[in-house]
């Protein structure tokens, strides 16, 4: 599943679009939780244009549910 979250706000400063460089805990927290749940197949990318927008792309692998009678 691919998800794109976008806003039209002030963007993020140049050269700080990796989650390691962001100062807040919110994005880092989301990334860590999703990585724990989905493992290495999960990815998150941030694209931002100062004074224009920020986009966060999430790639979540499909997890198959187990069958109760298997």
Most strands sheet: 3 strands, antiparallel
Percentage of β-strand residues:
25-35%
Helices, by number, come to 1
Estimated structural class: alpha+beta
Give the neighbour order of strands across the main sheet.
Answer: 1-3-2
* Uncertain residue ranges: none
Tell me the total number of β-strands.
3
What best-fitting shape do the alpha-carbon axes yield? Answer: elongated
Task: Write up this protein.
There is one protein chain. The protein has 1 helix and 3 strands. It is an alpha+beta fold. The protein has one domain. The protein has a 3-stranded antiparallel β-sheet, with no helix packed on it.
Q: Which properties best describe this structure?
A:
70 residues, 1 helix, alpha+beta, 3-stranded antiparallel beta sheet, 29% strand
Question: What is the secondary structure topology, with strand pairs?
Answer:
Layout: E1 2-7, H1 26-38, E2 43-49, E3 53-59
Antiparallel strand pairs: 1-3, 2-3
Outline of this structure?
The chain has one helix and three strands; from the N terminus they run βαββ.
């Amino acid at each position: 599943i691919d998800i794109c979250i976008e806003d039209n706000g002030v963007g993020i400063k140049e050269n700080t679009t990796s989650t390691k460089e962001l100062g807040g805990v919110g994005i880092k927290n989301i990334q860590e939780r999703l990585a724990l749940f989905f493992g290495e197949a999960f990815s998150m990318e941030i694209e931002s244009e100062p004074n224009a927008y920020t986009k966060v792309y999430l790639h979540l692998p499909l997890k198959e549910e187990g069958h109760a009678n298997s």
